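Summary for the steering committee. The consortium agreed at its last meeting that each partner would contribute one worked example illustrating the joint modelling workflow. Our contribution is presented below. We chose a case with several input lines so that the handling of multiple components could be demonstrated. No manual editing was applied between input and output; the record is shown as generated.
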Amino acid sequence: MKIATELFLIKEGVFSHSAEFLIVMNEVNEAIKCVSWNEKDKFCINPVQKGNGVVPIKNNFIKYLKDKGWKTETRMTLALGMNPGPIDAIKETSFGIFAVEWETGNISSSHRALNKIGVGILQKEIIGGLLILPTKKFSKFLTDRVGNYEEISPYFILYQSINIIDGVIGVIAVEYDDLDKEAPLIPKGKDGNAKKGMLLF
Amino acid sequence: MKIATELFLIKEGVFSHSAEFLIVMNEVNEAIKCVSWNEKDKFCINPVQKGNGVVPIKNNFIKYLKDKGWKTETRMTLALGMNPGPIDAIKETSFGIFAVEWETGNISSSHRALNKIGVGILQKEIIGGLLILPTKKFSKFLTDRVGNYEEISPYFILYQSINIIDGVIGVIAVEYDDLDKEAPLIPKGKDGNAKKGMLLF
DNA sequence: TATGGATCCATA
DNA sequence: TATGGATCCATA
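What follows is the complete predicted structure of the assembly.
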């Protein structure tokens, strides 16, 4: 898979200028590159509107980071009063924990994911975090209403207005490498209103 | 329906000290009081876990505010790059527009609702906003995973950390007045429970 | 019980 | 096409 955009909403303090930060970003970049579908090293999607599910997409990404020593699916609490919830991948740096969320849920979940990273930094539970989500162009071929970069971007100003002097919040938009009408559709689960769709048969 | 908690995350500037602000809050309080189910002036819910739908709940609330001169379901843009989306109710004050969202969607939607109010104030599109949502105790009897006050509250610090010197962000937790095992379940979706039964075949 | 997610809906 | 839902799922 390829990276369409990479933007830092906040990039302040010693960690953001460290070699460790560069390594973190490099590992994330490589992990994204190895996300594939229907071909060995490329993500080729069948361009059916709302036709592809999202569950298996991030598998290779997670596996790559795990091999690099990241902890995956760790349950942690990023704010007082919050019960622990799973985070896709975290890396322990000497400046603190860095968290990465590959978001394939509803667009509103992307708001929660960014909020969580913001709160985690404010509370000093993490030193930074990244949200990875599809471009709008990519998301059109996925489950309806999954998060996409263009739709969340008008809210970036909110995070840029938070008083954080030591931390990193980044957003990465990812996209398929190629279209392929012969590629199998990514299977869908039966969550949410999926059953209603099944009524058509 | 009754108010369980009322909290202001931000309450700064001239509007927050004005008589108009008091009127706005008073109208919202009265509007909440007239939300009922199964009795004329009380909200009596059948205490079945995840048993009640949410769609009709806010009807009386919206109607009350409409009668008081508020505009309802107005589509507005609260940030650059955002397409207009409907807002439950807005009141035009001499300090700017005040927006109210009665949130009955997924908890992650509550994050978006607060984010939207925050961005709207930062961009000077509105002077303030309120998020109204059920207490956890109430939400247990509603559709699974609807927003609830307790679950969003750990994120409040995020909004309190934004640099806003003129604006209001408030959150109100609402709750049923009484339990009533004879009360009809609030229908889900358009066809209520009938559709759910049909799915079994 | 609690959290994060995945899926399709209603409507302008 | 775009936005804000409404609903049920998977798993610790």
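The longest helix of chain A spans residues 107-122. Chain A touches chain B at residues 79-82, 105-109, 111-112, 115-116, 118-119, 122-123, 150, 153-155, 157-158, 161-163, 195-196, 199 (CB under 8 Å).
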